[in-house]
Design goal:
0% strand, 17 helices, 397 residues, elongated, mainly alpha, 75% helix
């Protein structure tokens, strides 16, 4: 009200000053202007300046009164906020007091033997009575762990809470148990899927324990390097007393059959190479097929060395003696027989003959394994798999 009154007074003052000139007759104003001395005419700016000063003073007064009103409103709001905080604190205190009273009453009901503490069995009986439901001992133990801050295995009065808090905690425990059970079920399904996938891969890529027939068949590929390596045994097998040896007779028959097939070496090479890529064949058989191919290729290098050595010595004006050539061939044939015997015996016992220097490691690198198959059963070469692993590691970083 006071603010509106000041505003009205200011407006009336301005209007009143303006009306003084408005109601003076023109002739009178002219006469007065004519009759006024020059000093009176010169005082008109002073009058206007005084008029502006009056208006400015009135405006400042209005602004000062407005600021006072805002300060008063702020103070009023502060007092109201303080009052609300005090009321909230009082409500909290009353609520805490009520909860304490309720907890004490519940404690007295649960403390059956009145020994001043609630044991695990008393807590279980009390909660089942209050909640009218059976509670597992496991959940009661979880409750005890949550509220037993002293860790003595019992609840004292200061540790005891209301039944509602026990109920809420039990519900939280139940939700956690459901979450854990759901995760365990998902993990179980995932493991079952992995087992099924591994079995499918194992069925596709036959890496099972070799059967007796697999062991016997796995020895046969080594006949290929044996037939091609007989050239190094011509001195031993061509001896006078070698014809009565059953081993030599068997080799002679096999060699005759081998040579009766046109391009037998190429046929054996491509047949073994093709069959070794069949994943349904047992791994031991496939491994021996690949190793037989590598051994047959390795037999080429001694012949190459003998030929180069003969050319070099011929160019130097000398030649390889027959004794040296025969000795070299006998050593090569003996080494081949020992190598093939090791491979045959190891295979018959169901173990991969993977101890031949250089050759066995090269064969292993070519052999497909279960981890080379993706989840859809597609074969991924070792080089591509390493690149994918490196990319995954970089993405994780």
């Amino acid at each position: 009200m006071h603010h509106n009154l000041c505003k009205a007074t200011t407006i009336m003052a301005i209007v009143g000053i303006s009306c003084v000139d408005a109601f003076v007759p023109p002739s009178t104003r002219a006469a007065a202007t004519t009759s006024l001395p020059s000093s009176s005419v010169m005082s008109l700016p002073n009058y206007q300046s005084s008029r502006r000063t009056t208006i400015a003073t009135t405006t400042q007064l209005y602004n000062a009164q407005d600021d006072d009103a805002q300060d008063n409103e702020i103070e009023r709001l502060k007092r109201q906020a303080a009052k609300l905080r005090a009321e909230a604190a009082s409500l909290e205190a009353d609520k805490a007091k009520q909860l304490a009273v309720a907890a004490e009453k519940a404690f007295n009901r649960f403390d059956i033997n009145s020994d001043g503490e609630v044991s695990l069995s008393e807590l279980k009986l009390g909660l089942e009575k209050e909640l009218k439901t059976e509670i597992s001992e496991k959940r009661v133990k979880e409750l005890m762990k949550v509220f037993d801050t002293s860790g003595d295995g019992a609840l004292q009065l200061e540790e005891f809470v209301t039944v509602d808090k026990f109920r809420n905690q039990l519900e939280a425990i139940a939700r956690e148990e459901k979450r854990i059970a759901a995760e365990a079920e998902q993990e179980k399904k995932r493991q079952e899927q992995e087992v099924l996938l591994a079995e499918a891969k194992l069925e596709f890529l036959n890496e099972k324990e070799p059967t007796l027939s697999d062991k016997v068949v796995s020895v046969l590929p080594y006949l290929f390097p044996l037939m091609d390596g007989l050239q190094y045994g011509r001195f031993l097998l061509g001896a006078d007393d070698a014809g009565a040896n059953p081993f030599v007779i068997i080799l002679a028959v096999l060699y005759s059959l081998y040579r009766s097939i046109p391009f037998s070496g190429f046929v054996a090479f491509f047949a073994l190479n093709f069959l070794s890529g069949n994943p349904s064949i047992n791994r031991l058989v496939r491994f021996n097929m690949q190793q037989a191919i590598f051994l047959d290729i390795a037999l080429f290098f001694p012949s190459l060395l003998i030929g180069l050595g003969g050319l070099i010595m011929q160019g130097a004006g000398s030649s390889v003696t027959n004794v040296a050539g025969e000795l070299f061939s006998d050593v090569m044939f003996g080494t081949l027989l020992l190598t093939l015997a090791y491979c045959a015996v190891s295979s018959l016992f169901g173990k991969e003959p993977d101890s031949i220097p250089l050759i066995s490691q090269a064969v292993k690198d070519r052999m497909p394994t279960i981890d080379m198959l993706d989840n859809e059963g597609r074969f991924i070469p070792r080089e591509m798999r390493k690149d994918d692993d490196n990319k995954s590691d970089e993405d994780k970083k």
